[in-house]
Amino acid sequence: MPEGTHHLHGPSFLSLLPSANSFLITCLQVGAPPEVAARLSAVAQEFQMRQRASLICWDAAPDPELDQFMEACHDMLAKYEEELSRPLQEAMAFL
């Protein structure tokens, strides 16, 4: 793990960013037209490539408040994704 990303025992800002982004993209894709969902997937892939490239040279100073904020955002997006996906999954199971 790059310097600056392991200063806390729990998850850090940089370690949560990819999954928070993934949750957000998934939430936006729920019910979106296929062409919009495909574009969102492309944006997510581009973000992941840029994120990997930036982690190579990232040397962030520890920021516990930012880490706590990102952890709260991550948890909120995970719950939101679950809530958005549930009705769609139930409808698909009904069919």
From TrEMBL:
<dbReference type="InterPro" id="IPR005540">
    <property type="entry name" value="KNOX1"/>
</dbReference>
<feature type="domain" description="KNOX2">
    <location>
        <begin position="59"/>
        <end position="95"/>
    </location>
</feature>
<protein>
    <recommendedName>
        <fullName>KNOX2 domain-containing protein</fullName>
    </recommendedName>
</protein>
<dbReference type="InterPro" id="IPR005541">
    <property type="entry name" value="KNOX2"/>
</dbReference>
<keyword id="KW-0539">Nucleus</keyword>
<dbReference type="GO" id="GO:0003677">
    <property type="term" value="F:DNA binding"/>
</dbReference>
<dbReference type="Pfam" id="PF03790">
    <property type="entry name" value="KNOX1"/>
</dbReference>
<dbReference type="GO" id="GO:0005634">
    <property type="term" value="C:nucleus"/>
</dbReference>
<dbReference type="Pfam" id="PF03791">
    <property type="entry name" value="KNOX2"/>
</dbReference>
<keyword id="KW-0732">Signal</keyword>
<feature type="signal peptide">
    <location>
        <begin position="1"/>
        <end position="22"/>
    </location>
</feature>
